[in-house]
Design a protein that fits this description.
With 171 residues, the chain is an all-alpha fold. The protein has two domains: 96 residues, RNA polymerase sigma factor, region 2, helix turn helix motif (Rna Polymerase Sigma Factor, Chain: A); 74 residues, Arc Repressor Mutant, subunit A, CATH 1.10.10.10. It contains nine helices and no strands. Helix 8 packs across helix 9. The longest helix has 23 residues. The termini are far apart.
Length: 171
């Protein structure tokens, strides 16, 4: 959202009301944020996307009182959601067998049609940078700040993520 719009004012008022403990405002804020958080967490955490989204929303509402600039809500929530999605995806990668073991053979037509399957082949770090740059449209500097990595690391991860995605998609 752009600064100064009526929608920004409405969101800021909703955040302030929720921070004061207004239950209706909290519910309205939950209704507003749930789809947004889900769109961020799903492509990064894959099958664990709903868990990551739930954890992210819990963190958002636990820390809502710490948000000093209500107009920055979506950027603040984005940081929490992406970090949580990466954390959940990394934890799942440590406890789940390699997803490539269950991937159909290279000639299987379902393989080329299933984007989710291709995303599973990327690391959580590569999925995160790909989602933020190509789906969220964030610039390199913003991705760098959000993920807490240097700009050259973002460029390298994005290059590798796109290359690996194209390679897997083309099979």
């Amino acid at each position: 959202m752009s600064a100064g719009t009526a929608a920004d004012t409405d969101v800021a008022a909703l955040v302030r009301a929720a921070q004061r403990g207004d239950r209706m405002a909290v519910q309205d804020l939950l209704d507003l944020l749930t789809p947004y958080v889900g769109r961020l967490c799903g492509p990064i955490a894959l099958q664990d996307g709903p868990d990551a989204a739930q954890e992210a929303l819990i963190t958002v509402f636990r820390k809502l009182g710490q948000l000093r600039e209500p107009a920055a809500l979506f950027g603040w929530v984005r940081v929490i959601a992406v970090r949580e999605a990466v954390r959940v995806a990394r934890a799942a990668a440590r406890t789940v067998p390699d997803p490539l073991d269950d991937v159909p053979a290279a000639g299987d037509p379902q393989l080329a049609a299933d984007v989710r399957d291709v995303l599973e082949r990327l690391t959580p770090a590569h999925r995160a940078v790909l989602v933020l740059r190509d789906l969220e449209g964030m610039d390199e500097h913003s991705v760098s700040a959000l993920l807490g990595v240097p700009g050259p690391t973002v460029r390298t991860r994005l290059f590798r993520a796109r290359r690996n995605f194209r390679k897997a998609w083309g099979r």
